[in-house]
Amino acid sequence: MGMVTVSSALLASSTHTLRCRGPLSGVQRLRLRPASPGVGALRLDNFVRRCYVANVEVDVGNLNKEEAFDDHTSLPPGCSIPVVHILGDVLDSSPFPLLDSTPHPIDFEELPVLSEGEQNTLAATPAHPAGLYALYASYLFGNLVEQLWNFAWPAALAIIHPSLLPVAIVGFFGKLSVFLGAPIVGKLMDHFPRIPMYTGLNAVQVATQLISASMVIYALKSMGHASTSALLLRPWFIALVAAGAIERLAGLALGVSIERDWVVLLAGTNRPVALAQANAMLNRIDLICETLGASVFGFLLTKYDPVTCLKISCGLMICSFPLLVMLGHVINSVSCHALDTSRTPSDESICADLLDVRKIVQNGLGSIKHGWNEYKQQTVLPASVATVFLNFNVALGPGAIMTALLMHRGISPSIVGAFCGLCSVMGLVATFISSSLVKRVGILKAGAAGLIFQASLLSIALTVYWAGSISQRTPLLIFLASIALSRLGHMSYDVVGTQIIQTGVPASKANLIGGMEVSIASLAELVMLAMAIIANDVSHFGFLAILSVSSVAGAAWMFCRWLGNPTDEQRELFIFDPHFQLQATIPARVL
Description:
Layout: E1 19-21, E2 32-34, E3 52-53, E4 57-59, E5 96-97, E6 108-110, H1 116-123, H2 129-160, H3 165-190, H4 194-222, H5 228-232, H6 235-267, H7 272-303, H8 306-334, H9 348-354, H10 360-376, H11 381-390, H12 400-408, H13 413-441, H14 443-467, H15 473-504, H16 510-534, H17 541-564, H18 568-573, H19 578-590
């Protein structure tokens, strides 16, 4: 094996630090370990005791593996450099002592480069598997209670008043709070320790859920028949709207934190297959909880009165809080305290300023401006914008508009229910397909495949809608089957697009940019809901369908154009993706 050379002395005093700069692109990566006693490798005997190494420039681009360095600067006697084991994927930037007080010479040798099979195994192995399992448990319990409540409050409001307006108003202000509050909450999360922030957000969400449930229970017990305008002005309804808006913001903040930050630390940014599998698992849990939440509350309504059902929901909320807090600490402890790593320099003045209620408008506008500037400068901006474009598709998918269309056309409720169930099944299947697709073709091509597949099938559905009457059996089945199958592409890109953004966004800005993306996506949904209100006649469904297909096709075109014209920064970011590795081997073969 060849020896590693260094052109000058690396240590001169205890104040020096060690820092490696520049990616190892395409070349063999070197690792050092103590050599066997028989190997006459690099021997360093003359270093000062208890040296601190933390920020010394090392040029990794000009390493010569054939020479041993003989002309190193002599240093004071009595210091040795022992082996330093660096665990995990996150390197702490703080100085660390090299701890051995007894001088013993250390030999170093170059380790062999990992084979392709070993690299694939490493890519599929999470950095902290035990932490991931604890994260799945936390996500399951928290999401189940949240989805249960998301089904419970609209059902209870429908019992109180037959009009859809109260439900629409609560939902509108929930999305508005996300649009306005997500950037400032994301910025706050980037400057606040993870575990305390996680605990605080869970406390806020549970408290607002309990307040909302109390208001609905009060209304069920005391409300008689009232007009819609009188209902909207009742104090309990105003409190419900305010609590619901805060609950939605806290819930989405928790989702951004787990899906954009925690899972990346636990799976590892440089382990694409493991990260893809972790993202797929989170999506499966979300789909399962969405189904179970509605089913559980629906079952309770068949056995008990609405007030009793809401009281049972409140009991589940109260029991879930200590469990979620405990699981948060378990995640951190079994992952070697990976969540304690600092993303940005801790600045208490920033947090205090953001939490100052006297500057809430100023801070909100400043956070939106700062978040927008950071959002549009990210390397993976086209992938994020494609995710936002998909939110414009409110017509050709399972939801209120599609349900209203089918019911207006006289379609059997059993067919409508089967269609919604099939869409859920396709979404669940897509979470399994996405991780294997990433393993086969790489993360970038997997994202393009998902978008193209969805756009193609939605185009078929749109053509069938305009070509014939969906009241007939065969066109109806083709129409519904195309939309259901398009969920494969939609959910595949949801998983893959999340991983692309996780890879391209630094941890110090994960929550800020994630919050900004959620804010823009909420704005897109508000715009489409406003257009649906304007074009509220079923005869205008074709116009909404054209907008939906256009948004998905635009997302696919934008992503493929970004993939076909990569920048140097993009190549460095996805250096291990098969798409760029193949491009790198073609010039080499020509030469």
